[in-house]
Write a structure and sequence with these properties.
It is built from 3 helices and no strands. It has a domain of 58 residues.
């Protein structure tokens, strides 16, 4: 359960900040180039792409923080089920 909550708050925070930043930038560029009708679509798309990428980063951080001992156990020499 700790991994889930760690991932949830990290991805929410990272996604909000990056989504807003990338959305404002993409929407601003679209507006500056005269495509005001598409500014919302471009901003939303840029924000979604940033959010997906950073949610993967948030999952990596949450797993590293809460399951670090597990990965060390799996990677320990002589602990392999393979001959």
């Amino acid at each position: 359960m700790a991994v889930w909550w760690s991932f949830a708050w990290r991805s929410t925070l990272y996604g909000f900040v990056a989504g807003a930043a990338f959305g404002v930038i993409a929407g601003g560029i679209a507006g500056a180039t005269g495509h005001l009708d598409k500014a919302g679509q471009y901003g939303g798309l840029a924000g979604a792409i940033a959010g997906v990428g950073l949610s993967m980063f948030a999952m990596k951080q949450a797993l590293e923080k809460h399951l670090a001992r597990l990965s060390a156990t799996i990677a320990a020499p002589g602990n392999s089920p393979m001959p």
